[in-house]
Specification:
The chain is α+β, with helices and mostly antiparallel strands. The protein is 30% helix and 27% strand.
């Protein structure tokens, strides 16, 4: 079974491309300091790689 990732939005999406904004929304993040838990899958890792400058990631 895959582990869990805790993802926190720490920077604003203002000034980012629309694709990066869409990726942040697809992860379930809306406002700064929002936190979500997602399964550690290759799809989620790929999304996080695209917005790594906007989020903090902790594995659990």
């Amino acid at each position: 079974m895959a582990g869990k990732l805790t993802i926190k939005l720490v920077r604003s999406t203002i000034g980012c491309s629309s694709r990066q904004r869409q990726t942040v929304r697809a992860l379930g993040l809306r406002k700064i300091n929002d936190t979500v838990q997602k399964d550690d899958t290759p799809e989620i890792r790929g999304m996080l790689r695209k917005v790594q400058h906007l989020v903090e990631i902790h594995s659990s």
